[in-house]
Design brief:
530 residues; alpha/beta; TIM Barrel; 3 domains; eight-stranded mixed beta barrel; elongated; Cyclic-di-GMP_PDE-like; cyclic-guanylate-specific phosphodiesterase activity
Length: 530
C-alpha cells in the first residue's frame, strides 16, 4: 500500500476515534448531571441552589461539547492539510523518479534508448525467449566531423539520423549506443539477402543525411549484424557479437556490412594474445625491420628505402603489420615499438653510410605517435646518437587513418620539421581528409596510394584522376612518390605523367638489410671489390 493511502486511513481512524471520545465524554457528563438532579428531586431541595446547578450543568455541558467539537475540527483540518502535503510530495517524487528513469534509460540528445536502456530491452526479449536480429550502426570517422564542422553540425546530423530511425521503428527498437553509433533491434526474421537489402537502404539514407546536414560527401557508416535465437548458449552475447562484426567491417575498409561469424570471436581472443605478447617480444628481439627501395625511374637510381616493421612470433606465427600497429595503439605499446623502429632504422642507415651508400630513409609513424609531445626530441636524440643527418630522414603519416586533434598534430610536425626532418603523407587519396591534411600540415612528400595505378593501364578515367591529383601536388610544390608499381606498363605510364619516384614489387619486394646488398650492388651503390 502507498504511503498516502496509509496516511489517509490514519486520518479517518483518528477522526472516528475523536467522535467516539466526544460522545463517551458527553454521555458521562449527562449521566452525572442526571444523577445529581435526581438526588435533588429525591431530597425535595427545590431552592435557588437547585436552579443554579441546572444552569451550571447546562453551561458546562455546552462548553465541553463546544471544546471537543472545536478540537475535532482543528485536528481534522490539520490532518487534511497533511494528506494534501503528502500527496504533493508523493506526486513530486513520482515525477522525479520518472525523470531519473528517463535519464538512466534514454539518450538526452536524441530521445532514443541509451546503452542501459537497450540492454534492458535485450534482457526482456531473452527472458521472453523471443528471437531477434541486432544491427550495430557506427558512423565512420565521425570524430572528424566534430573537428572540421563543430559540435552543432554533428549534433544536428545525429538527431536527423535518430529521427529517421524512429520513423521506421514500428517493428523494432532503436538506441543511441555511444557518441556516434546506433543499435537497432528487429523481431522480424532476416535472411542474408534481406539483411543486405535492409542495411543497404540504411547506409544510403545515412549518407544522404550526412551530406544534407554537414555537406560531408565522403562520410559513411559501417554495420555489424548478429542474431539471437532462444536456448542459444554460445558465447559471447548478441550485443558483443554485433560489435565484433562491426569491428570486422571497420578493419576491412569501412562503409560496409558484416554479419557475425564464430571465427570473429576466436579472432578477438587471438588479438588479446597478440596484445599480451608485444612487450615480451620486444624484449626477446622478435621484431625486425625490412626495407623496400624507392626508385628514381628517370635516372634509374635508388633514391632511398621505406622502413617496414615485421614480427615473427614463435607460437602465434607471422603477425600482420597493420594488426601490430592497430593493437599496439590500444595497449599504448606503440611508443615502445616506434622507439625500436627509429633506433634500428638509424643504426642501419649509419651502417649503410659507413659503406658509402648514400640513400634516404622513410619511417612510418602511427597517428598516436603524433600526439606524443616528446617525439621531436626523441627523433633528434637518436639522430645525434647515430650521426644521422635529419635531412636524409622522412617521417610518414598515414592519410587513410584519422588524425585526432589536428592542431596538436600540426604543432608536433612543425617541431619535427624545425629539426630538418622531412614529412611525408602516405596512402594519399584513400582517406577522408586528403585536401585538409595536405593544406593544413607541413607536408614535403606526397605518396600516392597503389589504387591510383592498379587499373591505370586499362582504365582511362584512372589516368585522368591521377593527372588531377598530380596537378594539385605539383601546384603545392610537393615531391611525389607513387606506390604499388608492379608492371612495366605501369612504369611507362607514370613516366608519361612525369612521375620520377616510385616503389613497388616491380623493382623489389621489402627485404632485410643483408638481402638488399646484392640489389645495391646491381645499381652501383656498393663497390663489388670491397
Amino acid at each position: 500500500m502507498r504511503q498516502q493511502d496509509l496516511d489517509s486511513n490514519h486520518t479517518h481512524i483518528f477522526c472516528k476515534k475523536n467522535r467516539v471520545f466526544i460522545v463517551i465524554n458527553l454521555l458521562i457528563f449527562l449521566t452525572l448531571a442526571i444523577v445529581d438532579i435526581t438526588m435533588v428531586f429525591m431530597n425535595h431541595e427545590f431552592n435557588h441552589l437547585f436552579w443554579f446547578d441546572i444552569l451550571r450543568y447546562l453551561i458546562v455541558g455546552t462548553l465541553i461539547v463546544s471544546s471537543f467539537m472545536l478540537s475535532y475540527r482543528i485536528v481534522r483540518q490539520y490532518l487534511s492539510q497533511k494528506d494534501e502535503y503528502l500527496n504533493n510530495i508523493t506526486s513530486t517524487s513520482q515525477t522525479q523518479l520518472q525523470n531519473l528513469e528517463k535519464k538512466i534509460k534514454y539518450d538526452e540528445l536524441t530521445g532514443l534508448y541509451n546503452d542501459d536502456g537497450i540492454k534492458e530491452v535485450i534482457e526482456n526479449l531473452q527472458k521472453e525467449s523471443k528471437p531477434y536480429t541486432l544491427f550495430n550502426i557506427d558512423l565512420d570517422d565521425f570524430k572528424l566531423i566534430n573537428d572540421l564542422k563543430g559540435m552543432v553540425w554533428s549534433d544536428s546530423a545525429l538527431k536527423e539520423i535518430a529521427n529517421y530511425l524512429k520513423e521506421r521503428s514500428e517493428t523494432y527498437e532503436v538506441a543511441r549506443d555511444h557518441e556516434d553509433s546506433f543499435v537497432l533491434i528487429s523481431l522480424n526474421e532476416f535472411t542474408p539477402d534481406s539483411i543486405s537489402e535492409f542495411t543497404k537502404s540504411l547506409l544510403k539514407q545515412i549518407r544522404v543525411i550526412l551530406h544534407n546536414e554537414i555537406h560531408a560527401y565522403l562520410f559513411s557508416a559501417s554495420i555489424g549484424v548478429a542474431s539471437y535465437y532462444p536456448n542459444e548458449k554460445s558465447l559471447p552475447d548478441t550485443l558483443t557479437k554485433s560489435e565484433l562484426a562491426l569491428h570486422q567491417a571497420k578493419i576491412s575498409g569501412k562503409n560496409r556490412v558484416v554479419i557475425y561469424k564464430d571465427e570473429f570471436y576466436q579472432e578477438k581472443i587471438n588479438e588479446v594474445l597478440i596484445m599480451s605478447a608485444i612487450k615480451p617480444s620486444l624484449k626477446n628481439n622478435e621484431f625486425y625491420l625490412v626495407y623496400q627501395p624507392i626508385m628514381d625511374i628517370d635516372k634509374d637510381q635508388i633514391l632511398g628505402v621505406e622502413t617496414l616493421l615485421r614480427w615473427q612470433h614463435p607460437e602465434l606465427g607471422h603477425i600482420n603489420p597493420e594488426k601490430i600497429i592497430r593493437l599496439s595503439e590500444l595497449t599504448d605499446d606503440i611508443h615502445r615499438i616506434t622507439n625500436f623502429v627509429v633506433k634500428e632504422a638509424f643504426r642501419q642507415l649509419k651502417a649503410w653510410n659507413e659503406q658509402g651508400i648514400d640513400i634516404r630513409l622513410l619511417i612510418n609513424l602511427s597517428p598516436k605517435n603524433l600526439l606524443d609531445k616528446t617525439l621531436p626530441d626523441t627523433l633528434i636524440k637518436y639522430a645525434t646518437e647515430y650521426g644521422i643527418n635529419p635531412e636524409d630522414v622522412g617521417l610518414e603519416i598515414t592519410e587513410s587513418s584519422k588524425l585526432e586533434k589536428l592542431e596538436s598534430v600540426k604543432e608536433i610536425l612543425e617541431r619535427i620539421k624545425a629539426y630538418n626532418f622531412r614529412i611525408a603523407i602516405d596512402d594519399f587519396g584513400t582517406g577522408y581528409s586528403t585536401l585538409t591534411y595536405i593544406k593544413e600540415l607541413p607536408i614535403d612528400i606526397v605518396k600516392l596510394d597503389r589504387s591510383f595505378i592498379t587499373n591505370i593501364d586499362t582504365n582511362y578515367e584512372d589516368q585522368l584522376f591521377l593527372k588531377f591529383v598530380l596537378d594539385i601536388s605539383n601546384a603545392l610544390r610537393k615531391l611525389v612518390i607513387i606506390e604499388g608499381v608492379e608492371t612495366e606498363v605501369q612504369k611507362q605510364i607514370i613516366k608519361e605523367h612525369q612521375i620520377a619516384l616510385a616503389q613497388g614489387y616491380y623493382f623489389s619486394k621489402p627485404k632485410k638489410a643483408e638481402e638488399l646488398q646484392c640489389f645495391f650492388e646491381s645499381y652501383g651503390l656498393i663497390n663489388q671489390n670491397n
